Amino acid sequence: MSKFTDTFRNIFKIHELRQRIIYTLVLLFIVRLGSHLTTPGVDAALLTESMKNQSSDSLFGLYDLFVGGAFHNAAIFALGIMPYISASIILQLLGAVVPYFQKLQQEGEEGRKKITQLTRYGTVLISAMQAWGVTVRLLNLEVNGMPIVPDPVRGIGWVLSTIVIMTAGTIFMMWMGEQITEKGIGNGISLIIFIGIIARFPFAMLDEYRLIQAGQRSLIVEIIIFAFMFLIIAGVVLVTQGTRRIPVQYAKRVVGRKIYGGVTQYIPLRVNTAGVMPIIFAQAIMFIPNTVLSFFPNNEFLQSVANLFHYQSAVYSIIYALMIIFFTYFYTAIAFNPKDVADNMKKQGGFIPGIRPGKQTSDFIDNILTKITLPGSIFLAIIAILPAFVSAWGVTGQFAQFFGGTSLLIIVGVALDTLQQIESHLLMRHYDGFMKSGKIKGRR
């Protein structure tokens, strides 16, 4: 414990690191503040009342998770940073199939700048479309016959102003994310999503405390639940950092009077190359049926179908798990190209011992990647369906989200990346890191 306390003190001894952390915290505070400022023209009291019966088992619930409750509050930051994430994913997928984007990805720094510019344009377009959808939803919400948006306010002027405000909110959050990455600590975009998710944790803990206080759960059972949660987090950290290292030997080259190469390096193939993306894709698709069927509350047949897609049903869990395994392989194939790795190795005079350069190297890497992706995908599937099982055991729904799924993977991944950057600053100035031996490894 004293080791951790000393490390924490050392963090604030370094002026630059201290300034970066304070800068990051200030911008994250602004993010949280903006998620509670209701959009002008919306009756906040009626909105709160209407949201009490809204189900989290829908696309709206998933979206609200990523924006830290801002969507639920119809705040100026209601869209969060998700339009930027969507634009980034679209451009990444286009890079796998469209030659123009493939060329940009191979052009180095200039190509990266062009892709960043296109991502920003895409963010504005997606934000405007989503903001328009939010205005339509708000105009249709009523509580006891009273509209959420009062009659004097309703109109094309309010719709246009709301679209502008929410789009500007997303652009401002995108700017803050970039500023955190450049002048703060950690990845700004990831930290904005992280702070939105982690903000729910105190309320989840409060729900658990109320259960104990009301006598509905014993303290021993609560301790067991927290121990189980600790083991799950440890497993997620282990798999997130897990890699299969492939040795690469570089031949010696004589350039002038210097000798280059002749060393052994490693290609780290991650057990979970796809990260959290398979769960996001699968969850978004699995929530579509309930989102659509929620518009037909009086149809008994459709509601019986909706029950099959409830997140605690066996049918939902099986289909959900299979989709995650599929998307893990799909996204891994997009994110990591063995052929490009083999070609780069060949150009630099590198080779895997016992494997011929070129196609055989590509096939060898692809074979290993396929094998290690299987346990990684199965682990992701188990983590994704764990909240449903934990909820069935009596854990409150809000607290169950931190036992697995998208929330836990994002929290662990972002925390590891941020701690790795802090540790790098400490080691650079000859201070000890967080661990007695070795260094913290991030996701990348």
TrEMBL record:
Keywords: Cell inner membrane, Cell membrane, Membrane, Protein transport, Translocation, Transmembrane, Transmembrane helix, Transport. It comes from the Bacteria. SUPFAM superfamilies: Preprotein translocase SecY subunit (SSF103491). The keyword Transmembrane helix applies. It is a multi-pass membrane protein. The keyword Hydrolase does not apply. The chain crosses the membrane at residues 21-38, 74-98, 118-135, 155-176, 188-206, 218-239, 275-296, 316-336, 372-393, 399-419. GO terms for cellular component: plasma membrane. GO terms for biological process: intracellular protein transmembrane transport; protein targeting; protein transport by the Sec complex. Its main location: membrane. It is found in: Cell inner membrane; Membrane. InterPro entries: SecY (IPR026593), SecY/SEC61-alpha (IPR002208), SecY_CS (IPR030659), SecY_dom_sf (IPR023201). Signal peptide: none annotated. NCBIfam families: 3a0501s007. The central subunit of the protein translocation channel SecYEG. Consists of two halves formed by TMs 1-5 and 6-10. These two domains form a lateral gate at the front which open onto the bilayer between TMs 2 and 7, and are clamped together by SecE at the back. The channel is closed by both a pore ring composed of hydrophobic SecY resides and a short helix (helix 2A) on the extracellular side of the membrane which forms a plug. The plug probably moves laterally to allow the channel to open. The ring and the pore may move independently. Belongs to the SecY/SEC61-alpha family. HAMAP family: SecY. Component of the Sec protein translocase complex. Heterotrimer consisting of SecY, SecE and SecG subunits. The heterotrimers can form oligomers, although 1 heterotrimer is thought to be able to translocate proteins. Interacts with the ribosome. Interacts with SecDF, and other proteins may be involved. Interacts with SecA. This is Protein translocase subunit SecY. It comes from Ignavibacterium album (strain DSM 19864 / JCM 16511 / NBRC 101810 / Mat9-16). The lineage of its organism: Bacteria, Pseudomonadati, Ignavibacteriota, Ignavibacteria, Ignavibacteriales.
